Amino acid sequence: MAKKKEVVKKKVSQDSESVEQVLIENFVSLQKVMTNLAVKFESLSTQISKLLELFEISAKSLAEKDFSIGEKEVSQKLDNLLEQNKIIARGITLLHEMNQPEEQQPAQIPPRNVPAQQPRNIPPQQMIQKSPQNQKIQSIMEE
Q: What does the angle CA 55 – CA 56 – CA 62 come to, to the nearest 5 degrees?
């Protein structure tokens, strides 16, 4: 029995020594990773500082410039954008309504009577065949 206890103690001591060795190796590699991470954080901090300086310089130069766009011009451009937005919204609504099955369609907008004209120097975008759907879209866009 004394031999078994000695054999068990040797195995336990060898196992604990190997575990300790693995733990030490892991701890050393963890320290290396942490050191590398600290170096990279320092580099990142430096780059962010440089970027902040660049933004400050940029803000100062923008503050010194005189933007001479009049309020009237901006207002006209915004009004133009608003009208374009309305036209696009109407077109999208019509496309959506045309894609619905007949049973699900709400009250449809009756098509407008557009007088037929003889084609003369028609721009390429108007050379598309005029189906009832295209006529609806065209009449709304002309409003």
A: 85
